[in-house]
């Protein structure tokens, strides 16, 4: 098996040991360097008059750091571009707002439920997940895990590749996972917005009425099978995945466990959708008494 | 040689020069001085690496998110003048805004489309930052702040969604907040529920068991006060950290 750490991928650059500590030291150096920049040992003169104006030293000029190339004054180079971008955006907004009116339907009526009632577009992906999961997973657990997973990204990706520049080939694992999630999110939104009709049944937008009647997936695994299967997935799968990534240098124990949990949760959601679509699977385990069904 | 004309005269008055103390920069020193001495411009350093201001580096996405937030603040404050958040008045206020208030329809359109555009811009900004690997140390926590700003942007949009009080608003928010009723432990429909419908997470959000007058005023306060106050605080930290960590391209 080709281990990630063996394949020269993004996770092995820490193999020279403790690059994270190295980073902290360099940041510390830089902060101390900022203090020094106020001192008299800095060259200053007519060639670089901005020194006297308290400019923070650009990082690229620090010793043993890669240079970022020549610098230009923010006025007018950057500010002109920003002004251009602002004017362009305002123009587009104005034109769109002149051409298209914001929707206003009939007054709110608690007695008349539209079918289907759809959430705002950015939450329709979660609503679409209700086809495959109970509300507590689709509407609570998954969004919480997504937000937590997004926030955790910098702590789970020890690679140093690509800092401010786009690097797709050099970190395929990270880019692959993120892109899959982002595209999947918008695919779910598209399906929910365009292809769901009354009763959340599948419709083709160019026809009237549903082509497939709304069907409820009925096949659930018996708990005798489902509970060991779910345990095996999270405990056994977690153990294997932890072994698989042990070559990833630069991740602490907590980060590894977090990564494995998020990876299993993400893959689990995809797996459940596939099993639902292919075999009509409803639940792996089901405890109707407590409402806990997965 | 002194330039002539009324505009040139105005720019030489003591009042004008007291407001704009550097004038239009004429040399390198003044170019730096104007950025340093202006509270808005000093969000930027005086000089940046030439490579970092290429359009492809950022697609201006963070700046566009900020611009849209500002547009939403201005149009939102104007909308507040014509809008009263009660079930009896909200919908008719919107109708009157569109039919009677000069440029009312345009005002509402601008606010609506800017809100949708801001959600898109913030998501695109996050994707750009990810693909650029711009969350590397020491910027990890600034990414976390960015994730919070994304969540707040979604809440900002979602709370505003209810305010027109039409069928679209009412049922979209009903669908959205029903999720809270399914939360484990704290939702009355969720697994291991320990609460009833009158005291669960959804009831706290809505001020009742259904979307009604209490929900409308709650969403109004969240939309017009709480979230717009919290977000600029996080944005200030967000921008300050970008600046202190060296801008778009810095490497350590």
Automatic annotation (TrEMBL), chain B:
Q: Which GO terms describe its biological process?
A: respiratory electron transport chain
Is Membrane set as a keyword in this record?
yes
Arranged from A to Z, the UniProt key words for this protein are:
Membrane, Transmembrane, Transmembrane helix
Q: Which InterPro entries match?
A: Cyt_b/b6_N (IPR005797), Cytb/b6-like_sf (IPR027387), Di-haem_cyt_TM (IPR016174)
Cellular component aspect of the GO annotation: membrane
Q: Which GO terms describe its molecular function?
A: electron transfer activity; oxidoreductase activity
Segments crossing the lipid bilayer: 59-83, 113-131, 143-163, 220-240
Q: Where is the Cytochrome b/b6 N-terminal region profile domain?
A: 25-251
Protein name in the entry: Cytochrome b N-terminal domain-containing protein
Q: Which organism is it from?
A: Eiseniibacteriota bacterium
């Amino acid at each position: 098996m080709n281990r990630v750490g063996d394949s020269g991928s993004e996770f092995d650059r820490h193999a020279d040991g403790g690059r994270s500590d190295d980073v902290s030291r360099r940041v510390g150096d830089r902060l101390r360097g900022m203090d020094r920049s106020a001192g008299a040992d800095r060259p200053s003169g007519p060639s670089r008059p901005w020194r006297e104006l308290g400019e923070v030293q650009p990082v690229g000029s620090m010793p043993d750091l890669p240079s970022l190339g020549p610098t230009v004054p923010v006025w007018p180079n950057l500010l002109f571009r920003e002004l251009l971008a602002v004017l362009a955006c305002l123009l587009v907004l104005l034109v769109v707002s002149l051409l298209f009116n914001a929707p206003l339907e009939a007054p709110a009526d608690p007695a008349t439920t539209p079918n289907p009632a759809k959430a705002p577009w950015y939450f329709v992906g979660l609503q679409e997940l209700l086809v495959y999961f109970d509300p507590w997973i689709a509407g609570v657990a998954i969004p919480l895990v997504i937000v937590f997973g997004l926030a955790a990204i910098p702590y789970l990706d020890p690679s140093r590749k690509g800092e401010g520049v786009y690097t797709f080939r050099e970190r395929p694992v990270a880019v692959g996972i993120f892109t899959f999630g982002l595209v999947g999110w918008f695919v779910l939104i598209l399906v929910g917005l365009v292809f769901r009709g009354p009763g959340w049944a599948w419709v083709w937008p160019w026809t009237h009425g549903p082509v497939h009647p709304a069907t409820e997936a009925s096949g659930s695994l018996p708990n005798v099978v489902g509970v060991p299967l779910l345990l095996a997935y999270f405990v056994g799968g977690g153990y294997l995945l932890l072994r698989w990534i042990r070559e990833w240098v630069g991740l602490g124990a907590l980060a590894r466990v977090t990564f494995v949990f998020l990876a299993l949760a993400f893959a689990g959601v995809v797996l459940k959708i596939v099993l639902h679509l292919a075999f009509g699977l409803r639940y792996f385990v089901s405890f109707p008494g407590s409402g806990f069904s997965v | 040689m002194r330039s002539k004309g009324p505009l040139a005269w105005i720019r030489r008055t003591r009042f004008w020069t007291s407001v704009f103390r550097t004038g239009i920069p004429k040399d390198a020193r003044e170019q730096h001085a104007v950025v340093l001495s202006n509270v808005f411009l000093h969000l930027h350093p005086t000089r940046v690496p030439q490579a970092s201001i290429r359009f492809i580096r950022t697609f201006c996405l963070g700046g566009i998110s900020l611009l849209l937030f500002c547009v939403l603040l201005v149009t939102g404050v104007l909308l507040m003048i014509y809008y009263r958040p009660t079930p009896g008045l909200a919908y008719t206020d919107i109708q009157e805004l569109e039919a009677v208030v000069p440029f009312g329809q345009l005002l509402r359109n601008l606010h609506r489309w800017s809100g949708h555009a801001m959600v898109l811009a913030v998501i695109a900004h996050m994707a750009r930052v990810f693909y650029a690997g711009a969350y590397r140390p020491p910027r990890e926590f600034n990414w976390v702040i960015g994730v919070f700003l994304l969540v707040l942007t979604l809440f900002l949009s979602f709370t505003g969604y209810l305010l027109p009080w039409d069928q679209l608003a009412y049922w979209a928010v009903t669908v959205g907040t029903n999720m809270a009723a399914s939360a484990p432990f704290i939702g009355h429909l969720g697994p291991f529920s320990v609460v009833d419908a009158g005291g669960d997470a959804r009831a706290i959000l809505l001020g009742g068991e259904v979307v009604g007058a209490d929900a409308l005023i709650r969403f109004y306060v969240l939309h017009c006060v709480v979230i717009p106050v919290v977000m600029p605080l996080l944005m200030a930290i967000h921008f300050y950290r970008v600046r202190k960590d060296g801008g778009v391209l810095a490497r350590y």
